[in-house]
Amino acid sequence: MMAMATSGDRHDIHAIKEHYCRINLIRGSDRWPVDVGRALAFLNGHLFDFGLSVHYLRSKCRIHQNNFSMKFRYFTGVSPSEYVRNHRIGCSVTIMEAMNDPVSVTWLAYEVGYEHPSTFCMAFKKATGMTPQKYRAELKNKKNSFQKIR
């Protein structure tokens, strides 16, 4: 049975998420179009929010171009939805690797912004080639192997 996070764990998770964002998120350039920079700043600030979508992003940032996703991809290398998905999954991997005690996949999905754990599991598998449960099991095996070597 996986543990739910305690209040101490929540503080740890918050610190892990902040650290992940600080070292992994793209920072815009002054030479980029204003709408791309504004959208990137918005995504970075709301990455783990439920309901974050390209439509919501466009409405909040007052972006009206139909080609915005292509423009965003040109400057960042990925579409806005790929950007969000990649960083949510990347952060979930970081959380799993940093936590000593495993947390439930449902709790982890909510923590990184997925309203539905099944959507999280599909995105995780697409990104890593394995389910979160399988990834966690392999991570545990690696940690156990490392401890045996020491």
What would the keywords be for this entry?
150 residues, mainly alpha, Arc Repressor Mutant, subunit A, 69% helix, elongated
Describe this structure in words.
This protein has 150 residues and is mainly α. It contains eight helices and no strands. The protein has helices at residues 7-24, 34-46, 54-60, 68-76, 80-98, 105-111, 117-128, 132-149. Helix 1 packs across helix 5 (80-98). The protein starts with 6 loop residues before the first helix and ends with a helix. The model has no long low-confidence stretch (mean pLDDT 87).
CATH homologous superfamily grouping: Homeodomain-like
Radius of gyration computed on alpha carbons:
17 Å
Q: Class in CATH?
A: Mainly Alpha
Low-pLDDT segments: none
CATH topology: Arc Repressor Mutant, subunit A
What order do the SSEs take from the amino end to the carboxyl end, as H and E? HHHHHHHH
> How many domains?
1
Distance between the termini: 28 Å
**How much of the sequence is in beta strands?**
under 5%
Category by helix and strand content:
mainly alpha
Number of DSSP E strands:
0
CATH architecture title: Orthogonal Bundle
Helix content bin? 55-70%
Indicate the overall shape: elongated
The average pLDDT score comes to: 87
Largest sheet: none
Count of alpha/pi helices: 8
